């Protein structure tokens, strides 16, 4: 499981780093006390969940260069990107706090997803998109690198907890069941 974000404390709590946030929560739940190591230009925690080996990963390259660390990890562990890879990422095209699993698909204009697709020769791998709302009149780069508004936080906090449950469902039952249980089609929840 890979959470996308940007490295460095100045990006903590930003919309673009919701993937890192989910990985941190998963680490506390699935691997309490397990040490994090540095591998593949990423922070990595290896653990087991329901007799499955689980790798929690936060690439330490900037968002638009996330593909190479993921490619290296898949190669090292001889993992199948179709069944063994879940990328957790922000999505400006979804209402704030909305979760959406996808088996495959386009990049949706997301540079991190685009770089991963380029390194993996396509988009056939699972992703969990977490809605952060559209930027409106704010330039997109400024918006995704900004922090959530107090109103958005009301939706993001429960969504991050739900994302942890969603990822464990993905491990236990696969992408189809995770999609059935957690995909949402809600209207915009917040206004800016």
CATH architecture: 3-Layer(aba) Sandwich
Unreliable spans: none
Which oligomerization state do the chains in this entry correspond to?
Answer: single chain
Number of strands: 7
Distance between the termini: 32 Å
Strand content: 15-25%
Report the average pLDDT across residues. Answer: 89
Question: What does the main sheet amount to?
Answer: 4 strands, mixed
Q: Label the overall shape.
A: globular
Question: Which bin fits the share of residues in helices?
Answer: 25-40%
H/E element sequence = EHEEEHHEEHEHHH
Radius of gyration: 15 Å
User: Regarding CATH, which class?
Assistant: Alpha Beta
Report the CATH topology name: Rossmann fold
- Derived structural class: alpha/beta
Q: Which strand order does the major sheet show? A: 1-5-7-6
Primary descriptors:
alpha/beta; 4-stranded mixed β-sheet; Rossmann fold; single chain; 192 residues; globular; 7 helices
